[in-house]
Design goal:
about 150 residues, alpha+beta, 6-stranded antiparallel beta sheet, 4 helices, 6 strands, about 25% helix
């Protein structure tokens, strides 16, 4: 089971302190695609490493891809950035990694990216600070399913 029962900024949910939701930017990008201002190649530009992480180290979503409308191909990949981590961040592959990183000294920030493994659509969904707290859901984000 995931530490966080779902997106903290979903309908009816209260965002955590420090959480940034990118739904408006996502909607703007989708509008630009649907109105023809950007091409499918521009909208679906996931890098090979992001696609690999989406296949092997991600959480499935119940949403269809907004571009190709394939069900069960939209995944969420979580990256964490902070002290003593690679400059490119660390892709979370196991449920216990977020708690381990939250317990470390220094500020760690998690970024959740949605990726379609069929067409390559990708967009930052939300970011939030990791915290070390007695509440296991504080600062925790979506955890990968395998």
């Amino acid at each position: 089971m995931r530490a966080n029962p779902g997106p903290a900024t979903g309908r009816g949910a209260t965002p955590r302190p420090g959480e940034v939701d990118y739904r408006l930017a996502r909607a703007s990008r989708l509008h630009a695609f649907r109105s023809g201002r950007i091409s499918r190649a521009e909208a679906c530009d996931a890098q090979p490493e992001l696609l690999r992480n989406a296949v092997s180290a991600s959480r499935r979503t119940r949403r269809a891809c907004p571009i190709c409308e394939e069900r069960h191909h939209l995944r969420e990949v979580t990256y964490v950035f902070g002290p003593r981590l690679p400059k490119s961040g660390r892709c979370i592959t196991r449920a216990d990694e977020l708690a381990t990183l939250a317990a470390r000294a220094g500020r760690h920030e998690a970024y959740v990216v949605e990726v379609c493994t069929t067409c390559g659509w990708n967009h930052l969904v939300r970011s939030y600070p990791l915290t070390d707290s007695a509440d296991p859901s504080a600062g925790a984000g979506p955890l990968p399913e395998r």
